[in-house]
Amino acid sequence: MPKSPGGALLSGFSIERSSQVPIYRQLEASLRRLILQGSLTPGQKLPSTRDLCQELGVSRITVKSVYEQLVAEGYAQARTGAGTFVAQGLDFEASPNIRRRRQRNSDADVEISDRARAIMSSQASVRHGETEPFRPGIPALDLFPIKAWNKYLLDAMACEQRHHLSYGQLNGSSSLRDSIARHLNDARGMQVDPAQIVITSGAQQAFVMIAFVLLNKGDVVWYENPGHIAGRDVMQIMGANIAAVPVDNEGLDIQFAIDNHPNPAIIFTTPSHQQPLGTTMSLVRRLTLLNYAQQNNAWIIEDDYDSEFRYRGRPLPALSALDSERRVFYVGTFSKSMFAAIRTGYIVVPPGLVDSFAKAGNLLGHGSSAVVEHALSCFMDDGRFVEHIRKMRRVYRDRRDLLFECLMRDCQNNLDPQPTDAGMHIVAWLKNTVDDQTAYNALLTAGIESLPLSVYCTRPLERYGIVLGFCNAHERRIPDLVKRISRTLRQHG
Ligand SMILES: Cc1ncc(COP(=O)(O)O)c(C=O)c1O
Question: Distance from the CA of 336 to the center of ligand 1, in angstroms?
Answer without folding.
Answer: 8
